[in-house]
Amino acid sequence: MNLASQPPSASSARTAFVVGAGIVGICCAIELRRRGLAVTLLDRLAPAEACSAGNAGILAAHGVVPIGLPGLHAHGAAMLLSRDSPLVLRLGSLHHAVPWVMRMLRSANEPQVHRTATAMKALYGSTVARHQALAAEAGVPELIRAQPGLYVHPEANGIDLAGGLAWQLRREHGAQIEVLEGAALREAEPALSPAYTRGVRMGPMAHTVHPQRLARAYAALAQRLGVAVVRDELRALQPPAGGSGPVQLLAAHQHHTADVVVLATGAWTAPLVRPLGLKLPLLAERGYHVTYADPGLELNHVVSDIAAHVAVTSMEPGLRIAGTEEIGLADAPPDWRRAEVLHRLAQRMFPGARLTQGSRWMGPRPGLPDSLPAIGPVPGVAAVWVAGGHGHLGLTGAPHTGELVARGVCGEPLGLAPGAYSPSRFMGSARSR
Ligand SMILES: Cc1cc2nc3c(=O)[nH]c(=O)nc-3n(C[C@H](O)[C@H](O)[C@H](O)COP(=O)(O)OP(=O)(O)OC[C@H]3O[C@@H](n4cnc5c(N)ncnc54)[C@H](O)[C@@H]3O)c2cc1C
After folding, report:
1. E-strand spans in 174-246?
2. Phi, psi (degrees; rounded to nearest 5) at 291
3. Cβ–Cβ contacts within 10 Å for residue 252, how many?
4. Is the peptide bond before 423 cis (omega within 30 degrees of 0)?
5. Partner of 180 for a Cys bridge, out of 173, 185, 192, 219, CB 3.0 to 4.6 A?
6. d(C-alpha 281, C-alpha 260), whole Å
7. How far is 107 from 68, CA to CA, in rounded Å?
8. Whose CA is nearest to atom 4 of ligand 1?
9. What is the pLDDT of residues 212-256, one digit of tens each?
10. What per-residue string of b and e applies to 3-33 under the rule 16 or more CB within 10 Å gives b?
11. Do 321 and 346 meet the contact criterion of CB atoms below 8 Å apart?
12. Nearest CA residue ID for atom 35, ligand 1
């Protein structure tokens, strides 16, 4: 079952609850409200307090590379066991993380990777224009900067533009790529350590200089459009018996009803859909950032070290280094050794920066093992939709996801083939969480 084959039973919906006021839920609420539904945005926290608060801010129009690439099998085990590695398993969550990694490795084959890249491009390719339009409507156009990204590697021959599958995918999907070497690299990004001798500038691209302020401005826009924002924690859903009638939301403080419910609950989604018969292998791909309030420099690009899998962004709150991937449960305590790894990387990349007053943060990326989100109704429960699992690209994909959800709920044409994002794509396979 997917969005297209779903009977348009939700199209008569008049009331909607969007659960989760992260960037994805906020965008879903806006788009549902634009179509005339009475919308409530429910979250146990204020808007954009969870993963959407502290990301790297990149609007990755060329985000077409899944994390599971062919070859990962070979160096993956060593990576997972190294303390400084960009990809680690959270020890306390191994019984969840190991099956997730096995699924990710199963999807790391070339035909699948090409299909995934096509689906990623269809969802993410329009991100810059969508965010620019939303930010303008929300009154914060200054929070979006259109600038190419700069990709570097500590080894001179570390960027395999000719043979590397990741670069092949980006090129195939329209990325404009410019190689910068020696003096040209110095000129492009003077603060970058001279130890980096070769880089790739890629565009068109953009980033936000304050992900949390941007998401909160979108939430304020939603409220201006008439969305009610309610603080409560959803405990369970009761779909209508016999398939028609409102859904009951059993929340900690109050019970609610709605014609349609959208679960945009990020890394906390799997336990909410499991009682509805959907086993979604959604785990937290936990990432960290360190933000330096007074770095004494402003970058010309978002600079990514592709060996370390980190991105460094000049933002309103300061210079932010963000990245790492720790696969586990969303609510496990942060392992601040990951932030220390980021701090050492920042020192290596920008030796002249004032890297003091660093504030640390951990965010649980909602991750599915094939690097695509789940967008669509819960199989067999037409009135409950899932919108989550965007992993590394939730900021990038939120506006388009909001539009797809609202179109699907209202029975409008979607404008893309939705099967790749179907929540049901994991059903029937033995291992899921
Ligand atoms: C270090 C790092 C860097 C990143 N960089 C980028 C980047 O450059 N570009 C990009 O596109 N993406 C990036 N991401 C990914 C991006 O931040 C996430 O994909 C995105 O924020 C997910 O948004 P979301 O709305 O799905 O989830 P969240 O923002 O986590 O929101 C989910 C919300 O649901 C609420 N909730 C959950 N369960 C319940 C319940 N039962 N009842 C009520 N409320 C509930 C939570 O309180 C939370 O507010 C990065 C992530 C990290 C960690």
Report:
1. 176-181, 198-203, 206-208, 228-231, 234-238
2. -120, 125
3. 11
4. no
5. 185
6. 23
7. 7
8. 55
9. 999 999 999 999 999 999 999 999 999 988 778 899 999 999 999
10. beebeeebeebebbbbbbbbbbbbbbbbbbb
11. yes
12. 20
Q: Among 19-23, 48-52, 89-93, where is mean pLDDT lowest?
A: 89-93
* Other CB atoms within 10 Å distance of the CB of residue 396: 28
The strand order across the sheet containing 247-251 reads 234-238, 247-251, 255-258
- Report the amino acid identity of residue 108: A
- Phi, psi angles (nearest 5°) of residue 27: -65, -35
The residues near 297 (Cβ < 8 Å, ≥ 6 apart) are 191, 314, 319, 350, 352, 353
> 359 near 291, Cβ under 8 Å?
yes
Alpha helices (runs of H) in 160-210, residue ranges in sequence order: 165-172, 182-188
Model pTM score: 0.95
For the record, the structure tokens of 35 come out as 């179509």
- The token pair that represents 102 in the structure block: 């096995």
Q: Who lines ligand 1 at CB under 6 A?
A: 19-25, 42-45, 49-52, 55-58, 60, 233-234, 264-268, 287-289, 322-323, 363, 365-366, 388, 390-396
Report the topology of domain 1-72+112-282+369-433: FAD/NAD(P)-binding domain (3.50.50)
Summarised one tens digit per residue, pLDDT across range 98-139 is 889 899 999 999 999 999 999 999 999 999 999 999 999 999
103-114 pLDDT, tens digit per residue, is 999 999 999 999
